[in-house]
User: Which sequence fits this backbone?
């Protein structure tokens, strides 16, 4: 497949890949690597601009509470965990991070700290992940500034989101590509109102500049353990989601056909992303009721062991299930669903994993081999879709 920068100003097809920094856990045991989209989009972009996103150095100031990730390709970005940086966190960052690929940002955070939780639970690890992702964007832009549209900072206080876009020719077809970081101050995310291909706020200009607000788009999403699907799996596989009556099902079918031709395990779901008004609001209220229920028991508790057990239950709720409701605003979800997909504009490409895989690794992590499969199916599928319309 021939991939190079296009001389066209706008793409007729699209790719959007994001990282939801700290969005690891969700409701009912859902666990994911929500940096997969950015990792795959970066891998696609490297076919035209082969920059080095390996981590050259992490500079840490305990006094200022700031960590800075620097890549071999000259990119850099900083972040500040809400509760500062401890001396041994500094030691871990300055020793274990060197040589890791910043474009696989959750992978990097887990390899340095062992685990990653969002919702303000693992702030230093999440801040490091966010700095990795932003450093990747900076690496590309510094290598070829004339080729990229770069977003202004998000206008809403607390958001550190950033997006870049460009147009690539894929076998002569102009494809708009967006790399997107959804990140919050203090490393307390996830907060992903601006994920996917929604042309809002800071993203609007960079999306419109390359035609991504109108092009049929593949939304690159997470590598995830989903309890509803995992029991039926005997191997990890790509999952294409294109809701019947809402999304571009023919594009989903083109991606599935591409996967089958290349003998890549994959499935197409046309009923997994319904547009249901009020669903996230109901889930948020239900989660709050669970917290209130445990808090009421804690309020009445006298026994030491009972109090610590109840507190541990609260910790589990906050560190895991809360991720399923905090990542997006209720009203936004009513319009775009959990992956930020404009109705009628595209499909979602992700990966689902087996129970055995999740039980062993605890937190899924995208591999370069996984990314290559995403890339092949996304690009070849778009090419086949283009040939059929």
Assistant:
């Amino acid at each position: 497949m021939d991939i190079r920068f296009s001389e066209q100003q706008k793409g007729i097809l699209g790719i959007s890949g994001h990282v939801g920094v700290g969005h690891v856990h969700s409701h009912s045991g859902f666990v994911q690597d929500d940096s997969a989209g950015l990792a795959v989009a970066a891998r696609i972009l490297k076919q035209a601009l082969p920059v080095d996103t390996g981590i050259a150095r992490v500079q840490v100031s305990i006094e200022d509470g700031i960590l800075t990730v620097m890549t071999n390709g000259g990119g850099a970005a900083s972040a500040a965990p809400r509760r500062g940086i401890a001396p041994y966190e500094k030691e871990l960052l300055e020793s274990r991070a060197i040589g890791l690929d910043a474009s696989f940002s959750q992978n990097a955070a887990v390899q340095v700290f062992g685990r990653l939780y969002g919702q303000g639970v693992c702030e230093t690890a999440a801040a490091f992940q966010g700095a990795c992702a932003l450093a990747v964007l900076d690496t590309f832009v510094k290598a070829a500034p004339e080729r990229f549209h770069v977003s202004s900072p998000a206008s809403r206080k607390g958001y550190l989101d950033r997006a870049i876009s460009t147009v690539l020719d894929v076998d002569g077809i102009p494809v708009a590509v967006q790399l997107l970081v959804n990140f919050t101050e203090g490393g307390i995310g996830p907060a992903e109102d601006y994920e996917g291909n929604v042309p809002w706020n800071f993203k609007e200009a960079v999306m419109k500049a390359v035609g991504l607000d109108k092009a049929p788009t593949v939304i690159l999403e997470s590598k995830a353990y989903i309890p509803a699907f995992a029991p039926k799996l005997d191997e990890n596989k790509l999952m294409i989601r294109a809701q019947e009556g809402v999304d571009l099902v023919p594009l989903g079918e083109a991606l599935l056909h591409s996967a089958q031709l290349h003998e890549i395990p994959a499935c197409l779901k046309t009923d997994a992303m319904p547009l249901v008004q009020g669903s996230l609001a109901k889930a948020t209220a239900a989660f709050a009721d669970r917290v209130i229920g445990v808090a009421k028991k804690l309020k009445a508790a006298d026994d030491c062991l009972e109090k610590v057990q109840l507190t541990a239950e609260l910790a589990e709720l906050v560190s895991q299930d809360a991720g399923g409701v905090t990542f997006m605003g209720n009203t936004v979800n009513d319009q775009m669903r959990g992956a930020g997909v404009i109705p009628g504009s595209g499909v979602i490409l992700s990966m689902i994993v087996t129970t055995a895989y999740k039980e062993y690794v605890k937190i899924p992590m995208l591999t370069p081999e996984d990314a290559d499969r995403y890339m092949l199916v996304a690009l070849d599928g778009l090419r086949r879709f283009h040939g059929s319309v």
In short: The two ends are 20 Å apart (CA to CA). The chain has a mean pLDDT of 97. The CA atoms of residues 19 and 136 lie 11 Å apart.
